[in-house]
Structures are given as structure tokens and as C-alpha cells.
Protein 1
Amino acid sequence: SLRTAPFFRMAADLVVQLSTSLKTKPDVVDFGTVFTDHMLTVEWNANDGWQTPLIRPFGDLSLHPACSALHYAVELFEGLKVYRGDDKRLRLFRPLLNMERMSKSAERACLPAFDQSELLGCIKRLIEIDQDWVPHLGPACLYIRPTFIGTEPSLGVKKPNRALLYVIMCQAGSYFNTELSLWADPKYTRAWKGGTGDCKMGGNYGGTLFAQLEAGSYGCQQVLWLYGEDHQITEGGTMNIFLHWINEDGDEELATPPLDGTILPGVTRQSILDLARKWDEFKVLERYLTMGQLCSALKQQRLKEMFGSGTACRVCHIGSILVFFQNLQLPNQDKHSLSSRIATELTDIQVSR
Amino acid sequence: SLRTAPFFRMAADLVVQLSTSLKTKPDVVDFGTVFTDHMLTVEWNANDGWQTPLIRPFGDLSLHPACSALHYAVELFEGLKVYRGDDKRLRLFRPLLNMERMSKSAERACLPAFDQSELLGCIKRLIEIDQDWVPHLGPACLYIRPTFIGTEPSLGVKKPNRALLYVIMCQAGSYFNTELSLWADPKYTRAWKGGTGDCKMGGNYGGTLFAQLEAGSYGCQQVLWLYGEDHQITEGGTMNIFLHWINEDGDEELATPPLDGTILPGVTRQSILDLARKWDEFKVLERYLTMGQLCSALKQQRLKEMFGSGTACRVCHIGSILVFFQNLQLPNQDKHSLSSRIATELTDIQVSR
């Protein structure tokens, strides 16, 4: 009802408290380590609904130690990027897809509904204020991290009566700068039917660190997540996975696993499918892909390329997979690889060439 | 190494900052809503290891907005209780089991190792300082919530270089005060093989709220979590599950699902198994239990009682299960029920009768 969950109205209510001392902007840094001068915070409580959105100097949050996010991971996030075009104008890449996914995550996490376009309006105002942080060079950009946490100040697993939506922005730097090596072991599962793998909830990530460290101990950079008895290929690290191959019927195909509840509906994933379908040069399919099918294709030289996609990494060529004590060497990337073509095309769109 | 993760030493280092204004202690309140006057905090960082443990006035935490716990649920907790015995002395119930489980959760979450007995020492000091909060009456007690969160102040899914271990304490009140009604639907899964269901990590809980609300919409209090094609009975809400029945071979049996990675190793669960095995009056088994087996037993009047167990709820009789549009009425609880006998015996141990 409007009484318990009025959508916040940005245009009318947004309050801005500018920082009195701006930070110096460092040169290229690691992803996610240097934040801009301001942040957006909007509080919600069950009695009064959404409170006045506030843009204020970047700084620590003050949270009750029983806060639902800290105990029960009632939390979710989004990731999107803003680019400075060749025409000097700033552009967000498909932000409505992020707002839509954020709404779905909020519903799944039992956090309150919010008005997507009003939140996007607040984010645009934040970007405007910190616009000098958006890099001027090439495909460099600023990474935007909307975060939504339950802040109920009492214990017990229950729907929170308080919540905080906040947005921080950081230098994107380079996420992965070389081709990726993956490690796969069916003893770890990232997501499962009836779970939350298709939402960007915090709980999907913390449980993956242990496997990621094991991948590292084998000299690999990320985990390739398998699923089920037939070892379906699902995601790689925090990326969606694509195969560019000649399929079992001899047709050229770009394939990625379908959104069956265990796969994160990536914005870059969707954009790649949209692009490739527009090209109409080969089959583009959302279908199950097993490790057995990949191995057969590799053996029969039907695999052209395997790559991952995500907002942070964009498009990332996969060079090898260590699985069942075998190190599978995948076809190399070159300028004719599909991932190179997609990366170039995405950049052209993002900087509006 | 000792350099990167020296265990903190409580006896030598603990610093106490007493609150200058103590709260009034309210009468019976809801579980987890009223906290004591002090809390324990211990910081860790990868360079210097564990810092000085601090007991300080209960209050908000100041956290970086990129904090790993808030984005990626790099977090875990424990729950244990302190009782005031008939002899007026305070007793923790099997706290080493909680310390042991907390260590395992920390390993799985990629949070640093800690010295279990030193942490327990710090917790005992905290209890001593807030000892007036431990109720004087019967089975009432104070609930202790150790919490351990990653506080890395940068984005990117990675092992945190900073962490905070803290302990808060609250009035326990009554968690469930009547017999429970459960709702089961295989479309939701709590935990799965290769996941984190056997650890007390935050991500196991936030994802369950949605199903809990759906249970509520059917007039039920908690979810009965099923697993797999054969609808195995795994947990109920945040409780372990027990069947007291005449099994398929005609033998009286107390049964609970085995610790196969999808089941939380509850301290109350273990204590019930220990007690029942000591009695040696009927079979005590950790075995798979399916919804089909439960329905058969119910139809053939072989079910004596179904109950849940947990630190918060202790032992809780289950009155009904709504499943596949059928409302299964389970045998009533009376003073001869196993759950009543176990509850009485546990209380006797906890208050040292």
C-alpha cells in the first residue's frame, strides 16, 4: 500500500550535501578500490516508507550490529558503468536492465519495491556531481554499484522493517587483463534450482570464495561452475559463459546456458545475444551445454572460442580449463575471434562512435 | 603464518570500556529485540593479524560502504545461550561446539582462523560484565550472538583483507510459543550438495525469507525444506528435524537426516542424539527421511511425533504440514511426548538441577 511503501520521489525531494574537500583522482588503479567523492543513500522503513534521498560525501555507514544484512545476508547489489563518449557526453549502458534486475532481486530478498526510474534519476544526479571522475580515455569508465541492504535492528530470520539503498561509484580499472584460465570441479555448486542464483543477492557470492581459492591453488584464475550429473557448464567466476562453435549438427552457433533459475541474467549476456541475433550470421542459441559436449567439440576441432561476459570484465576470452586433472587448451583469441569483434562493437556503442 | 594471522590473546590484551549509562531491563520481550549494555569487538587485518579485543558500550558499527559482508555476504554467525542455574551460577550450554562450528564456517567463508578458547574467554568476560541481564527465572536465558564479517573496503569478489568479529547479547524471550505448522513445496531449496548449507553463513538465510512469507500466506509458520527428486525432509525453518516413529521394520526409532553437507550440524540436534543414545530405549538413527515415508507412517499410524530443534527454539513440536495441497495433521504433543521429555531433560542440564 502507499502507506507502507510509498515510492521515493527524487525530483521533488533529493537533498544534496556537497563534500568540502574533494579527493585527488589517482591514475589507473585496481578495480573497485578508489571511490568518488559522493554517495547516494535512501532509507526505508515499514511505517513511513521511503525517506528523502540524500547525496552526501562518501563515508562510512553507521549500522546496528544486529542489522539483517550482516547476519542473514538480506542484501543485493547491481553493477553498471558510465562511459564518456567521443562526443564528451556521458552515457550509461542499458541502465534500465539493471534497474529491472535490481527490482527482481529486491522482491526475492523481501526488500521493498522502489520506483526504477526515480532511482535512475537519483543515480544520474550522483554521476553529474562526480562527473569529473569519469575517465576521458577510450573504453575506460566509472563503475556504479547500487546496493540494497536490510537494516532491521533485531535478530531472528524475518522480513526486515528497515532497509537502506545506497549507491557508490569507483574507478573500474582493469578487471581481468589477460585471457582467463578456469578450474572446474563438480564438488562445488554455485547455484541450484529453487535457490537465488538468478538474482544478484550477496549470498550467491560469499560461498564461492572457497572454491575460487582452490582454483588459485591450481594456478587458475576463476572457477568454471558445473551443475548436475551431466556437468552442465553454467557460469565462470562471476561471468556468463558463451561457446562459439560448430554444433553437433555441423552448424556454426553461438550458445550460452538458458535462464532456468541457476543463471544470472547478465546485461552483457543479453547485449551479446541481441548483437549476434542482429548480425544474423550464425545460429544464436540459449541451450544447455555440458562438459562432455565441450570436450567432444574440442577433440573434433569444432570449438572456435569460449568466452565469458559481465559488466565488470565486459568480454573475456577463456584460454584453458583445468578439469578432472586434464588441462584443456582452448583455441586462442585473435583479432578475428568473436570476442574481439563483440568487444569492439560494444565499445563503439558505449562511447557512441 | 604467525605474521599474517596471529591468534588474539584475550587474557593479556582484552580492553574494557564500561558504559556510563546502563539501560533498564524490560520484562519479557520478543526474541532478539533488546540488547545488553556491552558488546565485544575484535578487528583483524591481513598485515597485522588480530587486534586487541575490546569490550565497549553496545552501539552502531561504522562500516565502509564497500564492506565485503554488505555486498558478497562474507559473513557468519553463531547462537548460544547462557543460563542461570538453580544454584545461581551462570552456565553456557556446550559452547565449545559453537566455537568449533564457527571455526568451520570461518574456513568455508575464507575468513581468518581464530583461537576458539581465547574467543570463548572473551565471551565469558562479556557475560560477566552484563551478568545482571541473565534472567533469574526457570528456563529463561540470555542469547549470545557471535558474528564474523568481512570488512574489506573494496569491491570485487575476493578473500577479504580485513574482518571484524563481534559478539552481541540479547534477551531470548520466546521464539515459538505454540506447536509449529509447516509448509512444504519442492520448488524452493534451502541448501544443496556443493554449497554452504552445513555452515552458519548469512547467505543460507536471506534467500529463505521469500519462501517463509509464502508459508505465512498459507497460514503456516515455517517452511519445511525438501531436497531432491524423492522429497527428502531436511530442515524446518531454521531448525533440525526429528521423527519419533515406528520405522518400516516395526522398530521404535528416533531419526534425523544425516550431516551430508546440506544439513546444519545443530548443537541441540547433537545433544538430542547424545541424550537418546544414552537412554538406549529405542533406535537412534541419522538417516534420510522422505516425505513419502512420512506420509506412509502417518497413514499406518506409525508416527509418534515430529519435532524441530535449535538453539533459539530448543525443542519444538510440529503440529501440521501443508504439502501438495494436503494438510497433514501430525500426532499431538502431551507430557508423554518425546519432545516434552527432551525439553525437560535439557532444561535440567542447562540450569543444573
Protein 2
Amino acid sequence: LSVLGRRRANMPQHAENGGSSLGRVLTLDSMNPNVKRVEYAVRGPIVTRAVQLEKELKEGAKKPFTEVIRANIGDAQAMGQKPITFLRQVLALCTYPELLEDDKFPEDAKQRARRILQACGGQSIGAYSASQGIECIRQDVSRYIERRDGGIASNPDNIYLTTGASDAIVTILKLLVAGQGSTRTGVLISIPQYPLYSATLADLGAVQVNYYLNEDNCWSLDIAEWKRAVTEARQHCNPRVLCIIIPGNPTGQVQSRQRIEDVIRFAKEERLFLMADEVYQDNVYKDNTFHSFKKVLFEMGPEYSSTVELASFHSTSKCYMGECGFRGGYMEVINLDPGVKAQLTKLVSVRLCAPVPGQALLDLVVNPPQPDEPSHATFMKERTAVLANLATKAKLTEEAFNAVPGIKCNPVQGAMYTFPQITLPQKAIDKAKEAGQEADMYYCMRLLEEEGICLVPGSGFGQRAGTFHFRMTILPPTEKLKIVLEKISNFHVRFTKEFSE
Amino acid sequence: LSVLGRRRANMPQHAENGGSSLGRVLTLDSMNPNVKRVEYAVRGPIVTRAVQLEKELKEGAKKPFTEVIRANIGDAQAMGQKPITFLRQVLALCTYPELLEDDKFPEDAKQRARRILQACGGQSIGAYSASQGIECIRQDVSRYIERRDGGIASNPDNIYLTTGASDAIVTILKLLVAGQGSTRTGVLISIPQYPLYSATLADLGAVQVNYYLNEDNCWSLDIAEWKRAVTEARQHCNPRVLCIIIPGNPTGQVQSRQRIEDVIRFAKEERLFLMADEVYQDNVYKDNTFHSFKKVLFEMGPEYSSTVELASFHSTSKCYMGECGFRGGYMEVINLDPGVKAQLTKLVSVRLCAPVPGQALLDLVVNPPQPDEPSHATFMKERTAVLANLATKAKLTEEAFNAVPGIKCNPVQGAMYTFPQITLPQKAIDKAKEAGQEADMYYCMRLLEEEGICLVPGSGFGQRAGTFHFRMTILPPTEKLKIVLEKISNFHVRFTKEFSE
């Protein structure tokens, strides 16, 4: 203590680095500046206010609405979607293996549970798995990909099981970030984009390079626009990565096979690492056909399939499963340099492993009940109902919004979102500006306060300057969705009128 | 296409940035250099080889052993520890709520499950939770902390539910990293350390500042040594963080209350943010008393409790639960700047939420069956058996190693590891050097090949130059642990003899 006491009195040299000795070590001024630049609109101020409103309602406050409807996030079960029975049966068996003796569980569920438990350390989902994921589940993922892609081979060594797709996307981006100043890695992302991408790039200190989707052509991809983006980016950074989300989030479009070929060709020409976010691969309502990047890449022949580097992401959170809370997912890496792959495996090992219940859940998604198994009929019935229902709601949403003057909505071809453009009166834009707000944030905040509906403003995803949008999920149950659509429509008319007078 | 074609022929300016157009975008040369510096010995080359050996055995290869025993990692259930019945019953009920109608489940398990489901979106653990974690579980965590700390208040707003403790530790370190060159954040970590810390610091590009634990005094903390470390560090970085693991990993010591006071006083004097890794808080075999940093901090009076910034970490993976696969955990933050706290909440929201099954599991750990509830007796019996068994194995391990000439082992006072010092003949050290290996890596690799026992070399955790150690978990079942200890002892004698001739 005397040593410390003396030092304190005589040698306060640390104050030079740390500022006032009365203040905190960690302040807004002294914290990681990259973290400060992170933004994540899907859970931003609108959601904070929604949570507050829910509390106020619970405490008996009077509002112009009786419940807050959260259409801000793709959280199917929170919106009332029931879990798929087979998935939950197997997970319960894995969690509490005493149930394997229970006659109420079907034999195929038990068989799946036994197989998963066999592959776990100590035959328990409470053990860590291998960092890359449980081996037999990675094999099942590969077989799933092979079936999906018409037999194109998939190697389980290229599969990593992850904590949702978010974890995987962050990990791959982290590998790719290098250089300083004008050699810093640039990452092309679509605008509008899912803000995980912009948030991660801010966190990693990478350069975000925007390419705009063509709203007038159903949010399609546009080669000339990529060209512009990459050419401009080369003036100030080293663009090395191209991120694509298909089906689109927040825009709900499904790109044609031809466009995917264009993407791959462009990536090869421009030497870009391709990141394909395909978490909505079962959510295709247009023609019901999903073209995976992997499949198109291999169909383009060895000139492409042996050179273009691709990471493709999938998740248990979306599609018919909607099991967001389990944080399950996988990625497949193609043409990854073997040395880099070893680095990737090392990197994921630091956090030991993805949650094992999520891995088990993923196994059921990629290895569902077969026609000769007892759970098949129920499973198919439940799965089909969810997807058919989403297709109906996609159509319903498009039609309802396009009937409102000042709302223009592309067809929801896939995923579970709509991203309509809203025309806002200049006076509303000015009013928002006065308050230091984006006009669509002002609009969405007013909607929340007046109708209890929680959306995300387009500015949280990015949009062409001067245009305004919001993202809404189509997940509420049909009857509730109809109410939501009507409330938004009425609000829009009212809002427009208020600021047009 | 023609645009692309022309550009390719005439303007290959991107080759300047990207190197040969034939090579990959992402290579060892062009990847994130920080990731290359990451090392994580607990799952390093030794474990890779162990997995290989297991495969070879399965395929019928003849080895000097019939199974590989993995004593490299604190993975209780992989070593045969049975899950606690109550925890798994409640999780099964949450997973498949149809079981709430089943008479085989006790009423208190059902009541817990109902309460957790009520707090979930759509009453399903398949929904995302709030990013900070489910509110009623955060409240339960606070009450647990209050009971543990003799009534010192805990605010649920200061609790974050996380993906194991690893996730929380990485997140807090990320907030703290700032500056460049001589102002770059320095982080004091013990040597030996748990390599999550060194790996994360490499990843974040922070400066690792080593302080050595005093092996001769049972791995105790030493003020003069911190003083040395921090003073030297100030020459080249800005030391702002002090990380402590109590009970110790890999060293198994429990620090006295007095030492924890010293740590807190030192942190205040030197303006260091305190990170207290307390994931082994139930694993205390010496005097059976755990002194939390939070409690000691508040008992030191407002001069400390209102100023010293502290983040404390806990996990469902260790203690009596050993539920590693669920990746559950929490952190409590004390005296965090409110602006920084908002940044922390924003940052964790980017990955949406920690796995909900892990959150549910944590709720049971902090809110176990009470004496008047039907599951109490079984729960206490199972819990006590695990902890008593570990205490026995701690003693057994210490005694067995200290009986071997050339192995010197401090008492295992807590956690689930021993980190004995091994004396290696100079010839062995030279032989390893020739092979470009650390001597303890060579030793552990030989042990694995000859006896099938997988340990982690001390060099993976850090140790004073010229000393050698290994880390072994005490988790194998007693009968197997006895075999492990005998095999290591025999091997050590044989190895020493081989290189002393």
C-alpha cells in the first residue's frame, strides 16, 4: 500500500493517458470509436419506445390502441406462429432423454434424438461440440445441400455450424478485413440492406460500399450500378467482398437465375469474395423456385466453380421453422484457401462452439421426416400451412398498400418483409428536419404513438436520397395483418392530409 | 457483359490492389492480420491430433491405449457427469409445452416452465428475446446476486444475458479498445491465463499486458508484480483494464478476501476497469467460501463502490451444472457510464439475442428449487454429489502429482483444473527446440501418442520463461481419473529417464 500511496502522490503520469482521476475509465469519449458508429435500426429507438408503450398499457395507461403490434422484426413465433411439432419433439427428447421411454413420442422422433445424442460428448447436448459443429450434423447439412442443388457435391468439411446466420456473417467479414487507408477492405452491400451488414462493417472498421437495388424494376440487381459502385470505391479503398441477400431483406425480391449468373461473373471479373445470405431460401412465393448461388456457380462450369470464392449462409430462424430463439445456422464455404480455412476453424474455436440445441434443431431442418416415417404427414401439413399462409399474406400486403395513394409497393416475392415507398408531404419532411429526425423515422414514430404499430423506417436500411420507406414483416396472423394494413392505410391518409393543409 | 469485357481488357487497375487475377481474393497474405495472431491452445494441435487418434482407433488401428481421454477442457458432461434432473425437466417442458399436461413432471418444474414461457414472445422459446435478455430472468439473476452477496442490491438493468461467458468477455473488451500506438488500450491479464483473453486481445488489436501469478505462493496475486506490469506497460500503451479469474483457470487457486480488496484498491489507484471472471463461483473446495468482487467492492465503502467500474461474468457451463452446450451466461456491470451502457445495449442488439434455451437454463441456476418444493431434495442431492466429488478429485490429483519426482502441484482450491509444474531434462528441451516445438508441447504430444491422454501444454496459457506446465481437468470420473494420474506419472518417469541417459 505504501508503494501505491507514494506513487499516487508523486507520479501521476497515468493521468496523461486517462484524463481526470475522478472520472470513469470507460466513457463515450474513451470507448471504442468503431462501436459508436454501429447502428442497428431493427432494434433501434422505435423498438425501445414500443417496449415502453407496452409497459404503460400494462400499467393501465389510456392509449388510442389496446396493444402494440410489433411488425418490425422477422420473429414468427412472437407473432403467433406455432412451432413445428416434430422439431420440438426431437429437441425435448434430446433435452430430457428419459422421454425416450415415453410411448407418446413417435419412433422417428426418437430415432433422430438417439442419433444426435450418440454424436454428442457423453451423449448429452450439455457437452461442448467440436468448434466447427457436430460432425454427423455437418454431414446431414451437406446431403441437404446436395438434394437442394440437384446433386452437386457438398463436402462436410466446408460446413460450419453457427450461432444463427449473424454469427457466421460476422466471422467471414472479420477474416476479410485488412489494410489501412486506401488499401482498407471495401465491402459491397445492397441499398436497402439488412443492417447487420452496415453494423458489422462499422464495428470492424471496414469500408461500406453501397450499390443500389433498382426499385422501379422490383428491386433487381443492376450490373451498371455495381460497376459504378466498385469503380468509385477503388478511388479510396480495396473492394474485395460482394454481399447479396436473396430472397431480399428488407425488400422481399427474388432475383432471376440470370441475375445470379451476372453476380457470379461480376465477382470473378472484379475479384470479389461472394457472401450469399440465403436464410430465406424456403420463403419463395414467386414461381416457388430458389436458385442457390452454389448451384448456379457449379452450373456455370469449372472456370467459375473452381475459382470464385463463396460463403453461403442459412439459419433455423426463418423459412417455415421460425425458431429464432435457438440461434441455429450454418455456412458453406467454397474455394476457400486451405490456410485461411484453418484460420477460420481456429477463430471459431475461441468461442468453443455454437449452441448445441440450435445445432440439433438444424439437423432436423436438413433431415426432416421422410414419406415412410410416422411424423411425415403432420410435418408436411404444418410446413405447407406456414408457407402457403405467408404466400397469401405477401399478396394481401402488396394489394392493400398499392390501394393507398402515396404508398407504392413492389410484389413480395420472397422472405417475409415488404418495403413500400411512401410519399411524404414537404411540410412533414421539414417538420422532421426541425426535430433533427429522418422524415420516415418521424412518420414511423407517429404511427407507433397513434396506432400502436411498430415498423422500421427505411432510413435504417438505406434508401436513395429523397425517397422514404418503411419495412414491415408480413408475419402477423392474417386477421391481425388485415387490421395492421388498414391502420397503416388510414394513418397514411391522415398524415398526408395533416401536412398538406 | 460487353462493359465488363472491355474493362477487363483495358483497365486492369484492380490487379494493383488484389495481386494476380489467377489467385484467390482471400489468402493468408491478404486476410485480417489480427486473426492470424489469435491462438487458442485449449483446442489447438493437441486436440486435432486427439480427434485423429480417436478416428484411427475406431477404424481398428492398434495403439498403446484403447481410448483417448480428453482432459484438456472443462467439459463435465463429456466426461460422464449427468445433467441435473430439474434443469432438464424444465427445459424439456419449455421446449415441448404439451408435456405440461404430463403427470410425470413435478409441479415446481411446470411452474418454472410456465413462468419462463409467459415471458417469451408468443410464449415460445423459439422467439427472439430482448437483446439484453428476458426481463424476468434478469430479475431472477439480480435476486441471486443479492442472496449471494448478503443483500447488497443488484439492479436487473445492469444484467445482460449472454452466449456463455466468452461472449460477454469479448463484448466488454471490445468496448474498451481504443487509441493507436502508445495510446492503444492495454489489458492486464494474469499469466498463466485462460487463452480466451489473449485470443480476444489479438483479435481486437489491443495490447496484452502480462502480470505473473506467484506459483510459489499457490498462484497468489502480488501487488508489486502488478505495479511492475502497469509501470512497464505505460511506456508503450494505455493500460485501462485489469482481468482477474477467480477461482483461477488454469491454475485452480482461490484468492483470499484481502487479495480481492488489494485488486480493487489497485484498480482505483491506477484507474483500471475491472473484469472479474467468476464462472467457477460454485467450484470452491477450500473453506467453501466464494468472495465475489461485487460484494467486496461494496463492503469497502462508497469511495470504492461508487467509482470502480466492474463487469462480472458467470456461466451455466461450469460449477455443478456443467451445461456447456447450452451457451448460457450473464454479466453484471457496475458503475458503467450510462452513455456507454446504451452503446453496450446497442452493440448486443446487432446479434439480436443470446440463445433462449440457455437463458431459460440460467434462470433455473439462479432460481433453483426451494426447500418447500417437490424437486428440492433431488436437486440438492445431485448438486452436492457433483461438488463433493470434485472436491475429492481435487485432493486426489494434488496428492498423486506431488508423489511424482519432477511434478510439483499447488492445491486445487477451486475451479476444475490443475496446472502442475513439470521438470524436463535439458535433452528433452533441446530435442523439442530442434523440432521447433515448445518443450511442454513436445511432452504433451508424446503423452497423447503413448498413453492416449489429451492435456494442454502450459505454453498455451503462458508461464515464466524456463518453466513448464500442463493443464489437466479433474473432471474424469474418479476411477478413470486414478488411471489418468497413474498413466501420467508413469509417463513422466519414463520420459525423464529417456532424456537423462
